[in-house]
Every structure is written in structure tokens, then in C-alpha cells.
């Protein structure tokens, strides 16, 4: 039933709506921008020009008289084909904007194609973050002038089973939206390699989606707790061993000093040596004292 509704929406809203076409891509895809000024079979495109506006202030000609403008920075990725359509290979964020198809033969308004790009990025791109238990995915829909603004709930996150995620749940946390962007924090709890999809939905139909598989490297959470406990235990053991070693050395040294001072300065100064010996030495003192006591007597 729901797929039928989506199909109806697709039929209703896909393709040309008047002279404004809205197209959605992911980076790396190839786009075909139709020119509404001519028939789809048209091969004579010498009266057709294409221009691109990334904002309202400037327009860059991409095609003139049916040929790609070699002055365009993107010339290598552009092609004009049958129907005077403009093909853009390997879409990037820079390709976002409004494209006008202009005919010299008509006084009609130019026909427009609005090209939007959905990007998804991950905090795991930082090498350090890869061993973290949390990976933050950021999804953005890049649009011409960002107008109209993305409607409420138009950017959605979906898990592997197709459930739309909201708020917080096992292994994930939605971090709210900003303009036409949304970010999701995935935790190790969700599983070792978990795929999440971000999608842009308009009037009930999915216009574009992009997926990302969060890969948690390193040890998993429960194991790292064990490792942490082991490390702490090891550290404590090392500290105890060090203190014990220091005490034994001090003990021996003090005994030796006592014997030496006994020989050279007599028993009184030997007692002083013991009481003034520093370094947490109540124990040392106690250890030494029994042997010192008989000498004081
Ligand atoms: C597409 O563009 C990206 C970055 O702009 C580049 O790294 C990649 O090599 C390009 N791919 C092709 C097939 O040209
Ligand atoms: C997807 O989300 C739903 C609802 O939160 C949950 O019941 C389901 O277990 C999740 N599936 C996976 C594979 O995480």
C-alpha cells in the first residue's frame, strides 16, 4: 500500500514540472540536465546555450551554440547530447546550483534545472576517531540558495532494517538539524559494521539517499573494559613492586649506615640517623628501630 502511494507521488512529481526541474545527486554520479526549450530528439543545438549560477550574482556559460565552453573550469566533465541536454560527469558539491537552458530562437523564459547534491561525511575520517566508540555522521543537502528551506523532517536517517530513526535509541543518537543538514551519532553498541542511510524526502517521496557504514575498529567496548582493568591492575602491581624495592634498598642502606655510624660516632648519632631519615619512612623506621633499639640500650 505504502509503496503504491510512493509510486503515485513519483509519477506526479518526477521529471519536468513546468520549466523547473529539480534533480538530486550524490557526489561522483553523472547527471543529465534536460533542456526544456527543444524536443528530446533535437540534434541541432547551435541555438542553445547553458549557464550555471551557484548564486544570484554570477552566471557562468557552460555551453554555447551547442558546444561545451572550453573556458569553463568543468569543461572536461561536460558534454552536450541529443535533446541539447547537458551531461555533467562525476558530480561534486561545486556543481550545485541553477542551470539555465537558453534558446536564441524563442523569447520564452529560459528553462531551469535545479541541481542539488546530498553529501554524507563521518567523524571517522579523522584517524584518531576510528578507535572511538562513537562515530558522528553528518548528512547535508546542498541546494541553490538553500531556498526554499528544507521542510521539517525532510532529512531522515534510516537503519539497516528500514526503520526511520528518531531521537535516541539502542546504538544511536540524533543530534538535531541545522538548515538542510542532520547528524547522527552511532555508537559501538549498534554493532561492529552498521549501515545507516540518510535520505531526503519531499511530498512523501525519497528524492535521494546516501548510505554510510560505520566501521568500529580496535577492540570492542566490553573487551576494552577488561583491558583497562588489566592495565590498572598491572600499574598497581608495578607501583607496589617499586615501593617494596625502594623500601628494601632503604632498609639495607639504613642498616649499613647504622653499622657504619656505630663504628665511627657511637650509638647516639645512630639513633638520629634513623629518626631523620626521610621518605615515608615510618615503616622503615619501624623496621630499623628494633635493630636500633638494642644498640641504644
Ligand atoms: C571524480 O572527482 C573526484 C574529486 O573531485 C576525483 O577524486 C575522482 O578521481 C573523479 N573520478 C573520476 C572517474 O573522474
Ligand atoms: C532499526 O531500528 C528499529 C527501531 O528503532 C529497531 O527495532 C531495529 O532493531 C533496528 N535494526 C537494526 C539492525 O539496528
TrEMBL record:
Q: Which residues form the Ig-like domain?
A: 28-121
Instruction: Give a yes or no for keyword Membrane in this entry.
Output: yes
Q: Where is the signal peptide?
A: 1-18
What biological-process terms (Gene Ontology) are attached? interleukin-15-mediated signaling pathway; positive regulation of ERK1 and ERK2 cascade; T cell activation
Gene Ontology cellular component terms for the protein in this record: external side of plasma membrane; membrane raft
Its name, as the record gives it, is: Uncharacterized protein LOC114428906 isoform X1
* Keywords assigned by UniProt, alphabetized: Membrane, Signal, Transmembrane, Transmembrane helix
What gene name does this entry carry? LOC114428906
Q: Which organism is it from?
A: Parambassis ranga
Q: Which InterPro entries match?
A: Ig-like_dom, Ig-like_dom_sf, Ig-like_fold, Ig_sub, Ig_sub2
The UniProt transmembrane annotation reads 225-249
Which GO-annotated molecular functions does the record name? MHC class II protein binding; protein tyrosine kinase binding
